[in-house]
Amino acid sequence: MSGGAALAVVIPVRNEAQHLPLLLADLALAPAGLVAERVVVDGGSGDGTAALAQLVGATVLHGPANRGWQLQRGITATSAPWLLLLHGDGRLPANWAAVVQRALQQPPAAWYFDLAVAGGGAPLKLLEAAVALRCRLRQLPYGDQGLLLPRALLERAGGVRPLPLMEDLDLVQRLKPLAPLRRLRRPLRVDGRRWRRHGAWLGVLRVAWRNAQLRRDWRRGISAEQLAARYYAPRSCGPCR
């Protein structure tokens, strides 16, 4: 890392008042000069998420509940040479700052955390193992795992597209030809509510199957807007990624 502040953290959120303050507290433990900007882009929360973020000093922007658009808006509002893109329900590992600082010293690459799901149990451990295998074999991390990358690399890839769904897969697929995607080898813990909603094994299997169908249809050319309409339909299992 060169001298001075290096990192802009961008967090798209909607109704994450229960989790976002803990993530912002994790970020506050960074050594002076590492985190230049903390930008929370709120997608119409009704639970006070935006007010809580402001209370702890984050810059808060507002817009539609569209994670791709929210990421794009937050990135545009920052200027630091490195970006860390996170989801609002994540918790960073205790030594995250040292791990990130080491990554900043390496040749240009995109970096991601290992997925860890709060709650434990055999079904979620199996899910974590499956995601780790996917990342190892295909270099396709999920947005839940965070993404650390140089701004210049993101710009070469064409930036984050304002997609209401599949914005993470879309970006990673455009990054892969340009630079390696590397593990930070530390867990980023996310809330497990969407997997546990239908019980332990049933919830994990249902969400995994639904997500696989969405990715299949995305590869077949179904638009992100159509997939989002299906994903967020009231009869669905809710946000399932």
Describe what this molecule looks like in 3D.
The protein has 241 residues and is an alpha/beta fold. It has ten helices and eight strands. The protein has helices at residues 20-28, 49-55, 67-76, 96-104, 122-138, 151-157, 167-175, 193-196, 200-219, 224-231, and strands at 7-13, 35-42, 59-62, 82-85, 90-91, 110-117, 147-150, 181-190. The chain has a five-stranded mixed sheet with strand order 3-2-1-4-7, sandwiched between helices. The chain has a three-stranded mixed sheet with strand order 5-8-6. Helix 2 (49-55) links the parallel strand 2 (35-42) and strand 3. It is globular. Residues 235-241 have low confidence and may be disordered.
Short description, anyone?
This protein is an alpha/beta fold and 241 residues long.
Number of helices: 10
- Work out the number of β strands: 8
- Over the alpha carbons, how many angstroms does the gyration radius reach? 17 Å
- Order the strands across the largest sheet as they lie in space: 3-2-1-4-7
The N- and C-terminal alpha carbons lie at a distance of 33 Å
Summed over residues and divided by their number, the pLDDT gives a mean of 89
Summarize the topology.
Elements: E1 7-13, H1 20-28, E2 35-42, H2 49-55, E3 59-62, H3 67-76, E4 82-85, E5 90-91, H4 96-104, E6 110-117, H5 122-138, E7 147-150, H6 151-157, H7 167-175, E8 181-190, H8 193-196, H9 200-219, H10 224-231
Parallel strand pairs: 1-2, 1-4, 2-3, 6-8
Antiparallel strand pairs: 4-7, 5-8
Helix pairs in contact: 5-9
